[in-house]
Structure formats: C-alpha cells, structure tokens
Design goal:
2 domains, eleven-stranded mixed sheet, alpha/beta, 361 residues
Length: 361
C-alpha cells in the first residue's frame, strides 16, 4: 500500500512539473460549467469550445503557450469535423485510458501551432503536411500526406510508435530490426540499441525543457572541434552561428564603452596576473553586468539579441547533432548532464512514453 502511494505521489510530482512550464492553463472538467466557470483549477469550464474561447484571449507566443488541461472523461470536439487552427495552444489529458477528444474528423490546419499530450483521439486525425508534437497519445485512425507525428503515440491495436518508427513493447528488438548493419555483422547488441534510444529521449526532453524555460542550452559532450565541424558543413547552422557572432561583437562594443569593464579586461589580459586576482576580476565583471542590466537600456537591448541568437544557434546545433547520431546509430553522450536532471527526465519518459530505463551509477 505504501509503495503504491509513493508511486502515485511521484507521478503527480512529475505531472505538476510539466504543467508548471505553462504560464496560462485553462482547465476543463465534466463537473465544470461554461456559464460560471472561468477556466481556473477551482472553477473549470465544461467544454473544449469554451476553453478555446478563453485561451484565445490570453497573450501567447512561441515562448509562452497556453495549455488546455482536460480532466477525466470523453470531451466532444467543437465540431464533428473540427478544423484545428489555433496557435500556441496545446491540449493535455489525464492519460489515454482516462481522457479522449471525440469527433468524426479532426483536421490540423497547416497554420496551426499546437500539440496533443496524454489523451486519446476518438475519430480520424488528419495532419496533412504538418508536424504535430504528440506525447502518449492514442489515435483511432491517422490520415496524412507528408506530415509527421513528432513523439510517442499508439494505435488502437496497442502498437507504439516514435514518429513513424515502430517501438512496440520490445524496444530494443524493434529498433535493431531497423538498423542497417554491415554485411559481415551478425548481431548488434540489443542493450546498445536500448541505450541509444534512452539517451536520445533524454536529450530531446532536455531540449524541450530548456525551450519551455527560454534558457540557453549548452552543447555538451563534444569537443569544440566537433561542433565547429557541424557549423562549417551545415549551411543553416553556420548562418545561425554567424548571427550569434555578429550579435556578440555588438555586445562587446557596448561593454567596452564602460570604463570599469575595460579596465577589468585589460587586467585579465595581463599574463602575470595570479589565479586569485583572476577570480576577483571575474567576480567584478559579473557586477558590471548586473549594473548595466539595471542602468543601461542600450546594454539590455543588445544583450537580449545576443542571448536569443545564442539560444537559437545552440538549440539548432544540438538537434542536428542528435539527429545525425540517431541516423548513424551512434550512442549520444549524456554524461555532461547533471545526474539529477537525467533522473528527472527518466521519470518523465517513464510516465509519458511508458518506457522504463535505468541509469548506471
């Protein structure tokens, strides 16, 4: 009994972390009311239609999406043929066995920016040519052209997919079937296939986490020579990196106008400077950053551009390297992540994807 309570608390804890990533949440529940409900946790609305009305009134953009949080039960779509054209509004339920959206046909508009999480779609889902983020979603019928379901989902037969790749209940076996092996190679190590999938999912959750928080990712696990090689060979990565370097140069120009900062940098360039002095100078540099953040509008403006270009460059680079490693069936390194982070991501993967991985000591 105690063990079951502990597991339940752990599940609730991770679910709350996921919801906490959203600034705006509109709650929908069978016990709610469209007449007096305002979409808050203690006063939910009753229908998806009303939730969408409220969500559309909220301030939303790529950094701050709204979440429509569905409780337990079957919820009718706004129309039997529902054209989903909302932007920066995601839908989350309480699990594929507990929450469903019902419609004859749900069409994801090409202009829509949305996602489905932890629910079942009772009807035909037509994604056309769009990329639809999903996580732990059951789909009765899928219709598409060149579109992609980005994440873990399953059909009514219980077959589990990651995007278009079949996982089923035996992850490593199914993965290894899809691996292109050298002619003389007899058998790949199933455990290695499982580790590859584990690390890929951890990094993808890491990227999502930092994107939700609008924080800059570190490109860890690689030497700068390897990262630079990707920047040089991939045009879009080079373009993103060039934008960052231009913005970084502009920031340095603004900083060098500050006499205190200029003096600190002159002292740091002195080769005879001792380690203890270097640490003090670095600390003083941090104080200059804080002072300028408070007092200089020019610094704040240039710093914002610099930070955003760095965030975009690092995110694009990490995604590309991850995709390249996945294509080549190379184990992506995760030892640069903090163990606490990895454990949290493994809990989320276990709940959202139904995959249970271990972390070596």
């Amino acid at each position: 009994m105690k063990k079951n309570i502990f597991i339940l608390l752990a599940l609730l804890f991770v679910a709350n972390i996921s919801d906490a990533a959203y600034t705006h949440i509109v709650y929908v529940d069978k016990s709610g009311s469209d007449q007096i409900g305002n979409g808050q946790f203690t006063n939910p609305v009753a229908t998806i239609s009303k939730a969408l009305e409220l969500a559309e009134l909220l301030e939303r953009d790529e950094k701050m999406s709204a979440l429509i949080r569905l409780g337990q039960g079957e919820f009718a779509a706004p129309d039997s043929v529902w054209n989903v054209d909302c932007k920066w509004i995601n839908f989350r339920g309480n699990g594929i066995r507990n929450t469903s959206i019902d419609a004859d046909l749900i069409i994801i508009d090409s202009e829509a920016i949305t996602g489905l999480d932890d629910l079942a779609v009772r009807g035909c889902l037509d994604i056309g040519n769009t990329i639809l983020p999903v996580c732990n979603v059951e789909i009765m019928e899928l219709k598409k052209e060149d579109g992609v379901l980005d994440g873990v989902w399953q059909n009514l037969e219980g077959t589990i997919f990651y995007g278009s790749k079949t996982l089923s209940s035996h992850v490593e076996t199914e993965l290894e079937k899809n691996i292109e092996k050298p002619a003389k190679q007899k058998v790949d190590n199933p455990e290695l296939g499982k580790l590859r999938l584990r690390n890929q999912l951890i990094i993808k959750e890491h990227i999502k986490n930092y994107k939700r928080k609008n924080r800059t990712l570190a490109i860890g696990g690689f030497s700068w020579e390897i990262v630079r090689m990707y920047w040089e060979k991939v045009p879009e990565l080079k373009e993103a990196r060039d934008k960052f370097e231009v913005a970084d140069d502009e920031l340095k120009k603004v900083l060098m106008k500050d006499l205190e900062y200029k003096e600190i940098m002159d002292n740091l360039s002195n080769k005879s400077c001792k380690e203890i002095e270097i640490n003090k100078l670095r600390s003083s540099k941090g104080k200059v950053y804080r002072r300028l953040s408070q007092n200089s509008a020019e610094y704040r403006k240039v710093r914002k551009v610099r930070d955003e270009t760095l965030r975009v460059s690092n995110e694009m680079s990490l995604k590309h390297i991850l995709k390249d490693y996945e294509k080549k069936n190379i184990l992506f390194p995760i030892d640069w992540l903090r163990k606490r982070e990895i454990k949290d991501y493994l809990e989320i993967i276990k709940i959202n994807y139904g995959l249970d991985f271990e972390l070596e000591d």
